[in-house]
Design goal:
Number of helices: 7
Protein name: PadR family transcriptional regulator
Helix content: 55-70%
CATH architecture of the largest domain: Orthogonal Bundle
Shape: elongated
Distance between the termini: 27 Å
Organism: Jatrophihabitans telluris
Oligomer: single chain
Radius of gyration: 22 Å
CATH superfamily of the largest domain: Winged helix-like DNA-binding domain superfamily/Winged helix DNA-binding domain
Strand content: 5-15%
CATH class of the largest domain: Mainly Alpha
Domain Transcription regulator PadR N-terminal: 15-64
Structural class: mainly alpha
CATH topology of the largest domain: Arc Repressor Mutant, subunit A
Largest sheet: 3 strands, antiparallel
Order of helices and strands: HEHHEEHHHH
Number of domains: 2
Length: 198
């Protein structure tokens, strides 16, 4: 499932990752995606169901209608009839393989804000060598961003009003803070990395 930029949708990775943990119905999936992606970008509910349809068409997820016991007053159950017909989505064997291949891929999109946040959310399911590559790539990107901001502030400080300057300095502080945090994560990852393949 490729997109205009040639990359994979972060929403696709998030959906596959959550369903890899356990099957769930659409409403639960929406809630989990909101908490997962909401920290990194505004999540559009309208984009979820088209994504689910595309994943189904690709054969990576499947759906099942759960069975409910809707017993009558006499206690005679009529299993198999869903009161609301909620669909439960689950990963197929092919979907599990596809998700594993997505987690093993490292490219520029894994270092941007949205991509990094989504990949970080599934680090527990990612090989340690891949985790390190993503962390190091993100640190390099943030270091370059911080250096660029530092240069820009130094060059234009005289022409900026104090509010613009404070905004620029706040952005620089945030970038520097993230670089320090990433360095800690990288050091921790290296110190706990098991010998041999991750």
């Amino acid at each position: 499932m490729r997109y205009a930029g040639g990359g994979t949708s972060m929403l696709e990775i998030a959906v596959l990752g959550l369903l890899n943990e356990s099957p769930m119905h659409g409403y639960e999936l929406r809630k989990r995606l909101s908490s997962l992606l909401g920290a990194f970008r505004a999540f559009s509910y309208g984009s979820l169901y088209p994504t689910l349809r595309r994943l189904q068409e690709a054969g990576w997820i499947d759906e099942e209608t759960p069975l409910y016991d809707t017993a009558d007053p006499a206690g005679i159950g009529f299993a198999g009839r869903s009161k609301r017909g909620k669909k439960v989505y689950k990963l197929t064997a092919e979907g599990k393989e596809h998700f594993a291949s997505l987690l093993a891929a490292v490219g520029p999109e894994a270092y941007d804000d949205e991509g990094f946040g989504t990949r970080l959310a599934f680090f527990a399911q990612t090989r340690s060598d891949i985790r390190l590559q993503i962390l190091e790539g993100r640190r390099q990107r943030m270091t370059e961003q911080a250096d660029g901001m530092r240069t820009s502030i130094a060059r234009t400080r005289e022409r900026m009003d104090r509010y613009t300057l404070q905004l620029q300095e706040h952005g620089l502080e945030s970038a520097d803070r993230e670089v320090r945090w990433l360095t800690e994560l990288i050091e921790s990852e290296r110190s706990t990395k098991p010998p041999g393949p991750g």
